[in-house]
Amino acid sequence: MKLNKISLALLLGLGTLTSCDDKLDVVNPNQQTTATFGFNANDLEESVVAAYNHIRMEGSYARVGYTIDMCRGDEVWNSSQVWYLEFDDLDLPVTGDIGWWPWREWYYTINVCNFGLSRCGDDNSALSENMKRIKGQLLFLRGLAYYNLAGYYQNVPLITDYATYSSMDGLYGTNNSYDEVLNQVEADFKEAMEILPSKSVGGEFAKGRANSGAAAGFYARALMQRHKYSDALTVLKKIINGDFGTYKLMANYGDNFREGSQYENNDESLFEVQFLDYADQGTDDEWTPVNTSINATQGSAIESNCAPGDFGGWADLSASPWLYQLFKAERTTAGKLDPRLYWTIGTYESDWEGFENGNVCYTKTLSQQDTIHTNNTNGGLPIAKNTNFRTNLYDKVVTGLHDGINIRLMRYSDVLLRAAECENEVNGPTQQAIDWINQVRKRAQLAELKLSDFKDKDKLFEQIANVERPKEFGCEYGRGFDLIRWGFFYNEGRLQQLKEHGTFRRSTQHVKDPVSYANIATDPQLKSSYDSYLPGHEFIPIVQTLTNKNPNLVGNSANNSTSNASYFTDNGWTIHPVVDLSK
């Protein structure tokens, strides 16, 4: 027996020696490739996480990808008059630098989504519930990416098949039309809406991940970009009726702009970008995709852009005097200021004594004599929204990616006001449209609107576009998209109105006073962002950094300074005339 064992050992040893020249072929699990990765739900879940990661980078929603659109709006101006200046003035040249950062982030997101979707197949009925959730999230995030790319760059390369990346021709694609890109956006959001669970399933789908309600909300937004009001109204009604889970307005408007689990991912939020609370963050600012750190702060720089210089901020963005005066023009039923002003613009007001945290600016108690301006040279009204200006969390800003407030990309109030707008477009002013608007006004304790005060759809549109929406969403992302879909750049009266709204005073004195566009010629302190608007520059040019790398790319309307008015008129879309709401 012993000899048999020895013989067996010798045979095994000889066998080992005789095979020493063969190479052992073992897959390194730390060097994953498309040939070995992504064939199960666990792998694909990593792709989903990677896609979410890039919607919270500086080119997407953590910094310039968010603030560029704030600048395009008429309720925000660039108080540093340096950083963001060409976006605020709507005249970015093709040599512009940061103009390509959103492109970088969103195409990274698209690439990750395309890979994951290539593993999901086309037959949704054959997918498990887990795989449907994976596919739905990837579709939503790809739709979100292309929604932003179309809204910023107009006609971008449309890549939806992962196999496209296998050739240089695929990698360096040509431009697709604005309509082709938005067709894909609508398709992605619609399919995501149909296969994602509602927020009522709980867990992460109620606390941060895209669900069917988020997809439905953005699907309606995409439809409205091309005036598909009837289709959008159908979707918005389903959201209101609870088909995608229960949404409602928070009793306190300010709860939409604070950090903390008791405020974030609340009943009003359809979708928001997740940032770590200030106290839970890491130490490293993660500025670019190649600067990935396990110790990343995972916050945003929105606060750094908006906060006053005297309190540590970069002081780049300020609220327009027009928005401030709009708030001041209407009192609540109790004779007080609209509470949304408190959370939107950081000014001292006697009405704030005893309200929320009172007249506070980063723990400093303001007196009537205090004038807090954004920029130490150019003045400006500080933006309080999506900052800790009013929360008493800390006494000054640590600039960088440290703002822990989740960015609410879509709130239920937007659903209500969009439904009212669509109802008005489809059926004219109706009591239903008025009722939806009044739900939002009631939270702000404003008097209810009456249908009898709106004789036609032009007047109700004016109320929605230039009163209700700016007061509810002032100094948030999205106004630039609205101005494009409304055609305000293609109508002389509307463009003049933008010039009036966009007028501001470059001075640290009298920052709260009304300003008039009519005085620009005689008052050197006054300026209007829209005076320098060039045709086509409602979009961002496809800059040389991109066209130099991809010879197949051509420019858009901003590259060529060509008007998009004919696109609007050829589609037969209405540009509502300016209406005097006082009459």
Walk me through what this model shows:
The chain has 21 helices and nine strands. It has 583 residues and is mainly alpha-helical. A three-stranded antiparallel beta sheet has the order 1-3-6. Strands 2-7 form a two-stranded antiparallel ribbon. A two-stranded antiparallel sheet has the order 4-5. Strand 4 (360-361) and strand 5 (364-365) form a beta hairpin. The chain is globular and about 80 Å long.
Any descriptors?
583 residues; mainly alpha; three-stranded antiparallel sheet; two-stranded antiparallel ribbon; globular
Lay out the secondary structure.
Layout (H helix, E strand, L loop, with lengths): L1 H17 L22 H13 L10 H9 L3 E3 L6 H4 L12 H18 L10 H25 L14 H4 L6 H18 L16 H14 L3 H12 L28 E5 L28 H5 L10 E3 L1 H8 L10 H6 L15 E2 L2 E2 L15 E2 L24 E5 H16 L3 H13 L13 H17 L5 H8 L5 H10 L1 E3 L20 E3 L15 H6 L7 H4 L4 H6 L13
Helix pairs in contact: 2-5, 2-6, 5-6, 6-8, 6-9, 8-9, 9-10, 10-14, 14-15, 14-16
